[in-house]
Amino acid sequence: MPAPTQDEPLPPWRPLLRGALERQGRSPQARWLQLASLAADGTPRVRTLVFRCWAGGAALDLLTDRRSAKSGELKGLAPLELCWVLPKARCQFRLRGHRLPLGGEEERQALDRHWQALTPRGRALWGWPTPGDPLQAEAPFPRELQDGAPRPEHFELLRVQLQRVELLELLGHPHRRRCWRAANGWQEERLNP
């Protein structure tokens, strides 16, 4: 995935997030983020997704199933927020932004890279029936999709462009809370916890 360019320096919160992730160790839960969004009827939705990689200094990649409700809820530039809880580091990052629309060759290449990077067990989720549909006893739920399995059309990349990042550190008294905004050049602001 692309690294930050000379025009896009690494935001100051990224090393803090990297350090918190390192304190989590090899725990798979360290890659889990909660996604908050609004449904078409205006009601809130929260889901857990897996962090895949950074796509520049302040954009990250997540994967989803195009057949799921969240795919439709996140069309265009719909606002969203991610919460990344890192218990061993005793902190949480709140990442606010919007979906970054991709298309054409850039999107195809990114999808292919992500599909090939998945393990056979990870790919299997996209071989399951449509998320949220009624369960049918005879429906196939494969455990693995081997290397070389074609990438399904419903395999979708959710690239999030971040506009605001908050860090709540739950160490010490009082707790510490900081905020960075893209609109002000990622300058740190200290907030009441």
TrEMBL record:
<dbReference type="Pfam" id="PF12766">
    <property type="entry name" value="Pyridox_oxase_2"/>
</dbReference>
<dbReference type="InterPro" id="IPR024624">
    <property type="entry name" value="Pyridox_Oxase_Alr4036_FMN-bd"/>
</dbReference>
<feature type="domain" description="Pyridoxamine 5'-phosphate oxidase Alr4036 family FMN-binding">
    <location>
        <begin position="11"/>
        <end position="98"/>
    </location>
</feature>
<protein>
    <submittedName>
        <fullName>Pyridoxamine 5'-phosphate oxidase</fullName>
    </submittedName>
</protein>
<dbReference type="InterPro" id="IPR012349">
    <property type="entry name" value="Split_barrel_FMN-bd"/>
</dbReference>
